Amino acid sequence: MEENQALIERVAAGFADGNVIPVLGAGCSAPQTDETGRDFEGFPLARDFVVRLRRRYTYLEEVDDFYSATVLIESQEGPAALIDDLTQAYSPAQRLPSYDALALLPFDSAISFNFDESLEEALKQAGRIPTGVVADEDVPLARRSSVTVVKPHGTMGRGASLRATRSRVGAFDHECRLVGALLQVLLANRAALFVGYGFDDHEIMAAVRRVRAWAGESYRRSTAILPEASMSLRAELEALKIDVLNGTAADMLGAIAAEYINRDQHEPADSERWRAHPLFRKLVSVRGRPTETQVVEALLGATEERLQGVGVMAAARQAAEAAQLCLQYRPNFAGLKYVADELTVVADSDSDDVAWREWVAYRERRSVVRREIANEADAAIGDAKQLLLYSQSQRVIDLLMDLEPRRRSHLTLIVPECRAKSPEPFQNALLIAEQLHDGGFKSIEVVADMVGLHLIMCREVDLVLMGLHKVFQVRDEQTPLAVVNAVGTDAVSLAAEHVEIPVLFVYEHEKIVYTEALETARETVSFDPECDIGACLQSGHGSVRVVCRQIGYDLVPWRGNMRAVVGTTG
Questions:
Q1: Is pLDDT of 543 > 70?
Q2: Among candidates 193, 263, 269, which has minimal Cα distance to 529?
Q3: pLDDT of residue 419
Q4: pLDDT (tens digit per residue) in 237-287
Q5: What is the average pLDDT score of the chain?
């Protein structure tokens, strides 16, 4: 286990440095099980594909080898029939734990020997732009992508590119010289991570030899994830400078992703490690930091999927534990704390039958919230035509999409960038725009945060609309004391108050935290710590340490121009 951990840390560090390129075999797309015991159908391994073919073609009864079967089908039925058989077996793309975990890791290129396009789909869900390279004419397209996926055996989206016979596989290097040159560049001084092998010693050795041939003299010591490896295979791999990481593709990639995510954060409180938990796997499609509503919906959706497999009480308990893990890193998620308490109630039921009734009742209460918020917000927005949205909020997006279509067509949405949530320029604002793109709004304008403040001060905004993380309120009083939301909320609301523009907050009742005074509330808020990026600037007067202040939240006192729309599950 210690050996595994050392290798996991080394591979994670390699990803962080941009020095690892995944090399994917059939096991990445094969049937698999995640950490909670949920089964994923996946695609057939070569031997299983041959078994499937035997049911259709009687002349394959004595055939066991994949390439022997495919060449017979091609000669007897024609190339089109072979492509049709492959298409039925290896499409459409599926959501698989191995690829979800891999998509959490930073890499700009990968080599996949698989026909299916599940890797490409996982990358798209993670907000990355993959380009498949299967022939020389694809090489120029690699410049435009965030991830180049080289597929020497072809890809399902282009049936004619599939190389499913031994002769076609062998002709790749001769027919695709530019792709070979690209592979040499991509592999230069990088370590390979071989994933999805171990079902056949020949397969891993063939993949290693091909990669070594493409890399040439720049080949570096690499790692292979294998479920098991004999002493003789280990010796062969060691001779080829390959270390073995024992475990399944999904488990080991998940461990590497968790290690990378943890390593990539400068402080534990700012870590995203919790996102590697299987119950939050759907959040891999969220670029930047997910909103609290997205976290809650991902958690409840994953719980729903596990009810039949592990039982209601066990699924609820797993979900409650996952919520507590997230809360260690996101203590300002007051709504998630409420959800965790509700899940615990379900988990502590006397039986699965009782737990099921509790679960159904809770889900029904949640389903009412969106309708309540939409109805109240419709009236609160009134005649406003220019709405400014600050920081991504699923509740805000839902209520806008729930407005009557003609009403939406008259609205201009101004979306300032919320920098605290954006690893990349304008990432948060563009994500909001993407989610609202099909709503038929008059226009959606993405602007810098300072431009948003300028538009408020110039009265080019009728209403500011926001979600939030937490609300502090004195019990039995209607007006909150303060709210917690993304940094910049204080400046936006203060500017709006100055020119008498209303600010409308949308949130669920469970985000309310009762307190007696603002100072007491301040003590319970977690602010992101200073992040030391470790940079030094050299000048004639010596070096100057550069420090990045990553402050994620504002504690904003309730002001006279603020209004609230509150949905309740209670």
A1: no
A2: 269
A3: 66
A4: 999 999 999 888 888 888 888 787 666 543 444 455 576 676 776 675 555
A5: 84
pLDDT at 255: 84
Compute the average pLDDT of residues 397-412.
Answer: 90
Instruction: Answer yes or no: are the C-beta atoms of 465 and 456 closer than 8 Å.
Output: no
- What is the C-alpha radius of gyration for the chain, rounded to an integer number of angstroms? 27
What is the pLDDT, as a whole number, of residue 270?
43
Amino acid at the residue 287: R
Of 469, 481, 558, 557, nearest in space to 507 by CA: 469
The bridge status of strand 482-486 relative to strand 470-473 is antiparallel
* Residue positions counted in the chain: 570
> CB burial class (10 A; 0-12, 13-18, 19+) of residue 560?
exposed
By CB atoms closer than 10 A (0-12, 13-18, 19+), residue 548 is exposed
* Backbone φ/ψ region at 201: left (φ over 0), alpha (ψ -120 to 50), beta: alpha
**Is 558 in a helix, a strand, or coil?**
coil
What lies within 8 Å, CB to CB, of 210 at 6+ separation is 152
Task: Tell me how far apart the alpha carbons of residues 390 and 486 are, in angstroms, rounded to a whole number.
Answer: 8
Contacts by residues 398-406 (CB-CB < 8 Å, ≥ 24 positions apart): 398/370, 398/373, 398/374, 399/370, 399/373, 399/374, 399/506, 399/565, 400/436, 400/439, 400/441, 400/465, 401/436, 401/439, 402/370, 402/374, 403/374, 403/378, 404/378, 405/440
Contact 370, 400 (CB under 8 A): no
